[in-house]
Every structure is written in C-alpha cells, then in structure tokens.
Amino acid sequence: MFRTSAAVVLCTALCVPILGAGAPAWASDGLQDPTRPWAGEARGQVKAPAFIVSAILISDQRRVAVLNGRAVTAGDRVDGATVSTIGPRTVRLKYRGRDIEAALPKGKIRQ
User: Fold this and answer.
1) Can you tell me whether residue 79 is helix, strand or coil?
2) What does the domain layout of the chain look like in residue ranges?
3) Which of 32, 48, 72, 110 has the fewest Cβ atoms nearer than 10 Å?
4) Closest Cα partner for 80 from 95, 70, 92?
C-alpha cells in the first residue's frame, strides 16, 4: 500500500510541472500562437486609419486643415490618404480608391 501511494505522489510531482498544469508554456510569456488565424478584417476589406480634423481655415487665398496634427492643403498625403477637398466643416480624402470624409467635432465651429 505504501508503494502505491508513493508512486502516485511521485507521478503527480513529476507530471504536473511537465504538463504545465493545463496552460501552454507560451501563455505566461505574453506570446501568441503563430498558428492562430488572423483576427483582422476579412479579405478584400480595407479599414481606413482614423482621421481627426482639429481645425479648418478658409480664406480667399487658401484652404488649410489640421488633420491628425498636421496642417494640410488639397493634394497633401496623410497616413496613406490624399486630401481631395477642404470644406467649411469637412475634409474629403481618397484612401485606396475610396472616398472618406472627416468632419470637425460638433460645437467646435467658429466663423
């Protein structure tokens, strides 16, 4: 009877650390499973980066917008998109063949 108990204790002491108590070894290191499917957009869909308009200045001589912290005019490129037009409240961009419109936040308009 003593031999059976000792064998169970010995097996438990050796098997639990080897098996990792049920958790994969890479889970505690913050690593991700390289065989896990990618959780990004479906094939064919392109998600545009966020475009934040902070200010728009329109005068007789020029139209300038502050987009993602940069002063831009029509034709400039920002984060892979090209500025098409700058209006009183919005900036229109072309990103990978799609038209995108970024607007000033409500309540931030002074004329």
Assistant:
1) coil
2) 53-103
3) 110
4) 95
